[in-house]
Amino acid sequence: NAGVMQNPRHLVRRRGQEARLRCSPMKGHSHVYWYRQLPEEGLKFMVYLQKENIIDESGMPKERFSAEFPKEGPSILRIQQVVRGDSAAYFCASSPPGQGTEAFFGQGTRLTVV
Amino acid sequence: GESVGLHLPTLSVQEGDNSIINCAYSNSASDYFIWYKQESGKGPQFIIDIRSNMDKRQGQRVTVLLNKTVKHLSLQIAATQPGDSAVYFCAEGGGYNKLIFGAGTRLAVHP
Predict the structure, then answer these.
(1) Mean pLDDT, residues A58-68 taken together
(2) Beta pairing, strands A109-113 & A10-13
(3) Residue B4 CB neighbour total at 10 angstroms
(4) How confident is the model at residue A1 (pLDDT cuts 50, 70, 90)?
């Protein structure tokens, strides 16, 4: 059973370009969470999705950021018109249905905006 | 706002000693608390969790203590090894897995 898979592991974008980060949850997991981590800081919650539904996006910036988790395929975190401040590590976690169950994290995508 | 914070940003210990990493939280409504280990360039790795109705839980070489009176959480690592060197985060959660992470403590184990 493969773990949570994120790709790419490293992504470099120029200011103004779009960044697409992908997350394939563990098999059997229908809940996906995205977190952002700045250097030397803890992870900050961004969004929680279930298949085809955004459940909680209270941590997402209001502009330029969007997330989806389609019926088929990976979850996508999309950042439009990236700025230097978007440079961070973006982690995805997944969990099976149910409350309070352990979430498993992927290895993250390190986005660098130049 | 509600937050989870840590007392010590860096902890240096000798190999074989016991390590204690502390964490303060402010949301008394959290259902559970989790300790994660994060090695450089990797994602957080689950270590141990504890429900809010418990005050102690033990795992392999690790023990988590929860003091709800003073909203304090600690992680004890017995016989610390070089492989334990990492950044440790406490996190609190409730309901679904929307976790609030602390800033982290770097544990450095010296031979």
Answers:
(1) 96
(2) parallel
(3) 23
(4) low
Q: What distance in Å separates the CA atoms of residue B46 and residue A104, rounded to the nearest whole number?
A: 7
Is B98 in contact with A105 (Cβ distance < 8 A)? Answer: no
Query: pLDDT digits over B5-34, tens only?
Result: 444 488 999 999 999 999 998 788 888 999
A 80-109 near B (Cβ less than 8 A): 91, 93, 95, 99-108
d(CA A95, CA B96) in angstroms, rounded, equals 9
Residue of A nearest to B34 (CA): A102
Distances A15 to A18, A80, A106, B62 between C-alpha atoms, Å: 9, 10, 26, 44
Q: Under a CB-based contact definition with an 8 Å cutoff, are residues B17 and B81 in contact? A: no
Give the one of A4, A42, A93 whose C-beta lies nearest to B97's C-beta.
Answer: A93
CB of A18 less than 8 A from some CB of B:
no
